[in-house]
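for the record, two folds in this file. i put them one after another cuz i was lazy. first one right below, seq on top, structure tokens after. the second one comes after a little note so u can tell where it starts
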Amino acid sequence: MLKTTGMILEELHQYASPADKLSRLVKQGKYIPIVKGLYETNHTVPGYLLAGSIYGPSYLSFEFALAYYGLIPEAVYTFTSATFEKKKKKIFKTAFGVFTYRDIPAPAYSYGVNIRVEGGYSYIIASPEKALCDQLYKVEGVKNYQELGHLLLDDLRIDEQELQKLNVADVSVLAQKYGSTNVRKLSRWLEKRVT
């Protein structure tokens, strides 16, 4: 269970020095520090369940979400998340894994995300369409549809069958929100391939 320093100190208020007691509990492994002011009590919790609490507002996306949905074959060991108006990429190395956060345009931020609940934790993850748009937003612009196809199928290794399952209408709406050549090209490319 996630707990803040304030929550734990309140629980330990009966001790002469709650902060010293917290230090001892950390040394004993009862509380695992994640980032300043945030602790976890469960050693086995999957890192993706913690991503939104470490830095936010954010949602899981990019490579992590693409792997989560089976769009790419590789296992992803970094929990990649999208933020907005933070200006800088953030990286946190914790006992639960490496967490990275990078900006996408604010107008695109809230569209195409899903809230999931698992084992008493809730997390927010991009839809497959949104994760792919986020991924394309962060790479250098392609010049034409041939380059886009090469980027998607060869460089990113997107599964072609899974690509065909994407909701073209959702990608079309997202394309208007990103202001990205890559995302606009993806929208048109999918429309041609699916229709």
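(here's the note) second protein begins now
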Amino acid sequence: MAEAALGLGTNLGDREAALARAVDLLAAIPGITLGAVSRLYRSAPWGLANQPDFLNLCLLIDTDLQPADLLAACKQVEEKLGRQARVRWGPREMDVDILLMPGVEMDTESLVIPHPRITERRFVLEPLSQLVPDWLLAGGGTVKSMTAALREKAAEQICEPDEAATRKFALLRAC
């Protein structure tokens, strides 16, 4: 089994319910064991500003799936939750990204691990820092140190814990 960190986000529909369903769908996939789940963070859209705010979370899994198979599983979850192809960085029903797999580095046409823009996005680093603050990122910094640096560098990137959304998410997952 290998550890992996996934990032999930949505800005359409009942966002908390979609995230709860996505986590449950991932946990039900053979070869994936769910670990820790971050609280939910509200973030302003990235790239294309004229759209609703996102809710994001990170989760840790243990998996015996190969990276390409894990990617296929993530895409299946997106599809089950109604993800539609739209403009890049546009609104989405669900986005499930492989962020990190310690000891795995790959760069193919369909998959790059670690995620190529992980250190540029507070909506990824903030929840990831809650789960694995001491994991190393490219450039030698830890998740915690890179999160602190990005808070200073990109203070305009709105990314805040959303306690009400986190409570609703937890209640939905408990049912």
